[in-house]
Amino acid sequence: MGGRDEAGRCVARAFLSLSRALSPVLFAGDGRWIVKDREDGQNCNNWHWTTKNISSHVNETLSAALQAAGVFPSDGLLAGCKIKSAETTGEASVNNRKGRTFLIYELVMNLKWEGEVVDADGKKLETAKGSMKLPDISAECLDDLEVEFETKQRGSALSEAMRKQGTRCVKDAIQKTIQGLQEEVTANAAKEKTAAQSLPAGVTPS
Question: Rounded mean pLDDT of the chain?
Answer without folding.
Answer: 81
